[in-house]
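Q: What structure does this chain adopt?
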Amino acid sequence: MSPTFMRREIDEIPEAARRLTDPATQDAFKATAAALRAHDPRAIVTIARGSSDHAATCLKYAFELVAGVPVASLGPSVATIYGAQLRFDRVTALGISQSGQSSDLVQMMESAALGGAQTITLTNHSDSPLAAAATHVLDIHAGPEQAVAATKSYTNSILTGLWLAAHWQQDDALIAALLTLPDRLDTALENDVSRMTEALIGLDRLVVLSRGPTLGIACEVALKAMEVCAIPAISYSSAEVLHGPSAVLKHGYPVLPIPSNPGSGLTDTLGILRAQGASILPTVSGAAIPHSAMPALDALDALVPLYGALEAVSLRRGLNPDKPVGLAKVTNTV
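A:
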């Protein structure tokens, strides 16, 4: 049996990450970073949906930690349905989309520009409408992605944003960490995911937990569990889950932790949930030597094999991970 497109694209993740280190691509990152430095934003707003929005969640923490600039997600319906014109003085609007085709994102980006925002798009299609709506465009260089489920475009969206942050702040430690990542992702592909696959195969529900810079990766794993495995799943911050949702995490309710910063409190939360009867699933560890420069990089080490486990679970449940029922590669919403 031939590998699925999803499996092939998971295997392409390290090489896609490596393309971002190309000198010409780095020059583009540096030029946009210089424009960002000149603009000196007091806030950043993100415009994205689906997996791209989960990438934006990772980048929210990255920009806040690296640059000290607050970041918030915009709901496109503010522009598309309610017709509100927001003010964006000293604000940078960051649009993220694999296809760059979603009309609601385009309209929100146009509204941000009209309101005075500096506009930047991260996309796999630099000739797309979302790219045309922005002043600065960064190609994420994921290459053609044929599976409906985003994998390499998700990881490269995060990495493109991290490269932008690193050059913006001239953060040598983060730049060094990003340069080592493609080789680490090669190693991550070799992880044995059989234990994880067996843990997921029979599930009819799932909660995925993490916190801070890795929360967006927990969101992405929950989405993929629903999208390609038809497992009802939801993600929470390991702090937020204690504010109500933990009340139902008993009697063997499956909980999947995503590696987080050792000081995040994730371990303590898992101890509480385990004590009240939740079933804490095995996960794939991140790097043995953490990237102190950015915790999200460690979680990418864990995400790559998790993608592989979810693809395997999809097949064993008799599903087609390349064509989830009722979904398409480009989703247009109002």
